[in-house]
Amino acid sequence: MSADVATKKPRRAAGRSRAAAGNGRAPAVTSVVHSPSAPPTLPPEWRAFVGRWLEAAGCTVSDAARGDWEVDLSPALRRRWRRQRVRLVFDPQRPTLPRGAWFTAPGSGAGRKLLEAALEDPVCTRRTALAQVPGAPEAGIASVCRVRGLTWGPARLGPVRYERRVAFHAVLTRWGGLPLQEPWVVLLGPDGACLETVQGSQVPDIRTREGLYQISEPPSDEQRVQWMQQARGALDQLLDDREHEWERGIARLRDDELGRLGAFFSARIEEEEERLRRRASHPEDPDLAHGDATSLKLEWERRAAEVRQRWALRAELRLWGIEEWSWPVADLEQELRAGAVHVRLTSRVDVARGKPELPCCPGCGAPAEMLVRARGAVGCARCA
Ligand SMILES: [Zn+2]
User: How far is the CA of 369 from the centre of ligand 1 (A)?
Assistant: First the structure.
């Protein structure tokens, strides 16, 4: 027997009858999900999100016929939803659902059930950034720092170790004028220093796997407090910067609109004053009797206030997730030589991206993009 009466395909009957056996009852048509105006497909990210969440929540997801999923629920979700398993249907074009199946779209009943369950615990994941091989470019520090009058010795990469990093995921929303949303990630190092602030929903340019590789101790309470404080600082800074940038863009659009409004009302008021002058010389003409420059000015002020209010900028930042990372790093050592001068430089390497940091200038200690020979020593452009 087919679980999906409306569009049965014998080829896939086995998959459906297995799925139907899951709830121990004969399948039947229970509801209609299709309407002519329904969107033809759901975004693929939604499906991926649901799958990731269900698996993270301890469920087993398996493919069923016609792109559906048969989900063996985790013990907690079995208690919550009072069922062992559920069939999820993602196709909004499907005219009928197997009995007990859930149509799973972002705003559907099932979508909201999932969202409610997902919101119960804060979104927090643990992941590992995979090391690249080789961990650093062949040229070593020379790949990020230029030199003049000096030559590089061979680069030596130390052992790879894993440090704890934390990524804070936030969504920035702009209200007023043209509303806009941007996803952002702030990545902090083990000491809370902000390493990256990137626009997007993921830390970019890395390959990952689930779990914290080589880090078993939980972070200390002091470390957590430090991360939260630093993250707040970094996110406040981000909000400030974006607000200033938005303010500039919006001010131009608002002023353009106020300019058009001003030109319109100035012309009307001028016409009105001209009419008044003519009425003074032709008091009997009824066509010139009405009109009032004062009410036009009031109307102008009212419309201008509306425009200002509509373009008033309001920004909001919402933190929605935290990722704890195990991140591969290593130290890179390399000598700079010029005749008798030998200077050993070190740089820390982000092994997940195979990228060394700028080395510190031996003279002043600042990160140096270029090093030169200066009075028998090595220094950056500023020192020399
Ligand atoms: Zn220097």
Answer: 10
Residue 216: partners with Cβ closer than 8 Å, 6 or more residues away: none
Structure tokens at 265: 């009302």
Q: Which of 46, 318, 45, 48 is nearest to 182 (CA)?
A: 318
At 226-267, the pLDDT tens digits run: 999 999 999 999 999 999 999 998 999 999 999 999 999 999
Indicate the pTM of the whole model. 0.66
Distance 143 CA to ligand 1 centre (A): 19
In angstroms, what is the span from residue 372 Cα to ligand 1's centroid?
10
Cα angle 134-136-141, degrees, rounded to a multiple of 5: 155
Instruction: Measure the CA–CA gap between 195 and 207, rounded to whole angstroms.
Output: 18
Measure 334 CA to ligand 1 centroid, in angstroms: 18
- Cα–ligand 1 centroid distance for 191 (angstroms): 25
How far is residue 75's CA from residue 110's CA, in Å, rounded to a whole number?
A: 18
